[in-house]
Structures are given as C-alpha cells and as structure tokens.
Amino acid sequence: MQRLYEFLRRHPTGVDTFWAVVLLMVAFVGLASQGNSQGRVPEVPAVAVSLLLSLAVALRRKWPEKMLLLTAGVGVVQLVTDVSVLPADFAMLVLIYTVAAEGADWARRFALVGGLCAAPISQIAWPNEYSGVGGNILIAGFTMVPFALAWTLGDSIRTRRAYFAQLEERATRLEQEREAQAKVAVAAERARIARELHDVVAHNVSVMVVQADGAAYVMDTAPDQARKALETISGTGRQALAEMRRLLGVLRTGEQRESGEYVPQPDVQQIDELVEQVRGSGVTVDFKIEGTPRPLPSGVELTAYRIVQEALTNTRKHGGDNAGASVRIVYFDDGLGLLVEDDGKGAPHELYEDGGADGRGHGLIGMRERVGMVGGTLDAGPRPGGGFRISALLPLKPAH
C-alpha cells in the first residue's frame, strides 16, 4: 500500500488524467441520456466543452494558471453557445481548488471572484422555469456555496503546506546549527588540548634539556652538581608524566580526577614551585606577590599558572645566557594582574608581530587564547631597555 501511495505521489499528472477520463465518461453518459430523452444526438459544442474541461482536470497540477484560464474560456463559450450546465462543469470546482492551493496570487483572486460570479451568471442565463425571481436568487445563493468551499479548502491546504514547509526548514536550520556548534566545540577542545600539551611539554622538556646540558658540562669536574642536575631531570620528567596522565585521563573519561594517577590542575599557589624549578635550571627569577592571596576561579588559576610557565620557558629559550626574569602577581579587588619580564636578548620579532607563532612554537597564541577565554587582556612585546615583557589582567568574573 505504501508503494502504491508513493507511486501516485510521483505521478500526479497520471492520477489527474485518470479522474479526467472518469469525468469525461460521466459527462458523455449524461449527454447521451439527455439526447435520448430529447430524441436527438448531443450537440457538438456540449461535447467540445466536456472534452476541454476534462483536459483542464488532467493538466491542472502541471499548469494550474493556464488551465484556470482555459476553464474560464470554456465557461464563456457555454454562455455564447447556450450550452446549459453539464456534469463536466464539476471541473470548475476542481480548478478553483487547485489554483487556491498551488496557483499564483493573481490566479487565486481570479478563481475566487470567478467562482462566486459563475453561479449567479448561470442562474441568469438558464433560470429555473418553475421558480420565481426569489426562488432563482435563492438557488443562485446555494450554488455559490460549493465554489466558496472549494476555494476555502484549497487555501487551507496551501496554508498547511506552507506551515509544514516552515517546520521542515526550521528543523533543517536547527540541525545545521547543531552541527556547526558541534564543530566549534570540537575545534575549541582541540585548541585546549593543544595548549595543554604545549605548556606541559615545552616547559618540562626545556628544563630537562637545560639540566642535561649542565650535567654533561660538569660531569667530570663537579659530580655532585651533575647528580643534582640528574635528580632535577628525573623530578621534572615525573611531573611531566603526571600532567600528561591527567590530560589523557580527561580525554578518556571526560572529567578531571584529583586522586590516583591523575594530578589536579596547577593553580596560582604552585607558581612558587614553578619559579623554584626555573631557578634550579640556572635562571635568576625575582618573584613577588602583592595584595591578599585568595581562592580564584579554576579557569583563572590555570590561566595564570600557564602564562607564567610559558613566559619563563620563553626566557630560557630566547633570553640567552645569564638572562634574569621577574614575576609579579597582583591581587586586585576585581581581578588578577600578572607581569613577567626578563633582561635577555628577547624573542624574535615574528613571535609577537605575527600573533605569537614563529614557526617553532605557538606559546603566545596559546596565552592569548587562554586569556581570551576568561575575558582578560594580554600585552606582550619587547621592553624598551632590552628583553621581553608579558603583562596580563584576568578578571574574576567570566566573560559573557
């Protein structure tokens, strides 16, 4: 049954042709019966009118406006040739319904006016001999009802189709929006993972490289210093592994664990340990905290830690030998201020002029993204007297 229904939907003209043939057969039967009762052959104009009206039904959905005009023309021919009402005139109701449902605006208005006028005109042209003037007026009024109902039914079908089309369009648009949001969420998550990986790997590996170089240099002359450097390398490696496990655990489970093999995310309180680790790698760091320390939102805590970590990593990478750095953390009433400066050679111009990517890393890009996520501001660039300067202000209220 479903297949038959789908077949009929795919071939509307064939369905209309079938009903047109049925209408034509009914019309011919009526004409034959009328001719037999009067003892004569049906007139040619009546046959032609029946044929044309049946043709209009067959092609009503293919060319609704043209078939409406054809039907109107056939009605005029009926008046001119004095062909009274025929069974085939039912096609006028069908065409009015079709145009009201599918036709252009001008055709819909024409169909409504023409349909309402057809009944009175028909009653004037062929009045009922057994009814007076009042009776003919009443008959004309009743005859107008089917035309009005046909147009109203077609218009309601048109409105219903437009409503369902709007619902389908809205559903499609919502689906596209959901897909776009999913893509944005995936891109944001990938960027977050990239920032975390960069911060964890770049910082800890740079510390391990510096300590390994120092250990190799003093291996023969100062074994104790070499042993201490190796211990630092071991501790840094374990810290890197712990943070990597935390990050991979988040990826696997979708949540952050603070027990077992996964460590909590770093915060502002751990910056002191970070500074000591950098000092152990040979970089002189002046660290100060101003204001009253207090708990901050987790996003601000992690952002502050990563900014200081990346800034000190860049000092080791680009500052050169004997470079010193200073770290200032300021607790404001409505935010947290960070200032990291060094007196080294400074980073290459591409690192800050092209948005933070110098072809070897994306440290400043990650900083800007992190600061932007919490609604803060970041300023990075060379100092007038040499070296590099990174300043950030992180608000305590999330950005909207």
Describe the model:
The chain is α+β, with helices and mostly antiparallel strands. Helix 7 packs antiparallel against helix 8 and helix 7 packs across helix 10. The protein is 67% helix and 9% strand. Among the domains are: 2-126, no CATH class; 268-400, 2-Layer Sandwich (Heat Shock Protein 90), CATH 3.30.565.10. It is built from twelve helices and five strands. It has a five-stranded mixed β-sheet with strand order 1-2-3-5-4, with helices on one face. It is rod-shaped, with a radius of gyration of 44 Å. The longest helix has 86 residues, at 133-218.
Rg, Cα atoms, Å: 44 Å
Main beta-sheet strand count, sense and barrel state: 5 strands, mixed
For the largest beta sheet, what order do the strands appear in spatially?
A: 1-2-3-5-4
Query: What would CATH call the architecture of one domain?
Result: 2-Layer Sandwich
Instruction: State mean pLDDT (0 to 100 scale).
Output: 80
**Helical proportion?**
55-70%
Annotation, overall tally of beta strands:
5
Task: Encode the helix/strand succession as letters.
Answer: HHHHHHHHHEHEEHHEE
Protein name: histidine kinase
Keywords: ATP-binding, Kinase, Membrane, Nucleotide-binding, Phosphoprotein, Transferase, Transmembrane, Transmembrane helix, Two-component regulatory system
EC number: 2.7.13.3
Enzyme class: transferase
